[in-house]
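Dear H.,

Thanks for agreeing to be a second pair of eyes. The structure we're designing against is below in token form, covering all 224 positions.
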């Protein structure tokens, strides 16, 4: 199983934050959070003000959360309402921090693909890396990046463990979200390039959780 493989290894930090308790805030974007009813989520400035206001109140500079979370916030965008059953289950971990925050490769890899997924509520600039670990291939996805993150990329470009290769984008370039990184793992790409579902429907939850193992096996954030 990929989970056991990931748990056997230590990885380079993906972002420049310490994950000891008290240094970050776990953010809840489910119906259990009454704040969301008071925020205009379709207004990226208001949404960003809410997120970074919560971080400021907690006296931290980074927020985290989201894997396998049944989220309310995707109602803000038609991008997640294009099928009979809306997509609402988050398949990655979000790291909410200032635009320009650097992103580093957790292990050696190469660029599988990249794209600017520019729909409202989509990933914006996106990079997918391909990795080999003990003979097993898997992929890591980095969404909501800066436009500059895509400059000079090409498929097959080698990215070394610990190398800075991207940075957080700002709205509207990052898909019109408060600045954050969507970090996701995949065991197969399903023929896709530069994109992969980061949110699935309730009906497809188990299928996609099998395809997308918990990214915290790499991040190792204590409270997630």
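And this is the sequence the design step returned. I haven't edited it by hand at all.
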């Amino acid at each position: 199983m990929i989970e056991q493989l990931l748990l056997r290894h230590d990885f380079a930090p993906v972002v420049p934050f310490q994950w000891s308790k008290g240094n970050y805030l776990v953010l809840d974007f489910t119906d259990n959070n009454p704040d969301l009813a008071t925020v205009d989520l379709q207004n990226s400035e208001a949404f960003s003000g809410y997120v970074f206001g919560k971080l400021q109140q907690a006296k931290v500079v980074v927020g985290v959360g989201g894997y396998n979370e049944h989220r309310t916030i995707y109602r803000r965008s038609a991008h997640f309402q294009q099928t009979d059953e809306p997509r609402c289950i988050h398949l990655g971990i979000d790291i909410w921090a200032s635009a320009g925050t650097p992103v580093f490769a957790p292990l050696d890899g190469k660029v599988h693909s990249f794209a600017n997924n520019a729909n409202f509520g989509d990933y914006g600039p996106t990079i997918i890396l391909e990795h080999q670990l003990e003979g097993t291939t898997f992929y890591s996805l980095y969404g909501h990046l800066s436009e500059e993150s895509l400059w000079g990329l090409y498929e097959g470009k080698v990215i070394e463990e610990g190398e800075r290769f991207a940075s957080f984008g700002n709205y509207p370039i990052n898909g019109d979200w408060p600045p954050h990184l969507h970090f996701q793992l995949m065991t197969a790409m399903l023929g896709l390039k530069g994109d992969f579902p980061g949110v699935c429907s309730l009906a497809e939850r188990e299928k996609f959780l099998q395809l997308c193992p918990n990214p915290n096996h790499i991040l190792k954030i204590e409270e997630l």
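Two observations from my side: Confidence is low (pLDDT under 50) at residues 76-82. Residues 2-217 form a domain with the Glucose Permease (Domain IIA) fold (CATH 2.70.70.10).

Warmly,
E.
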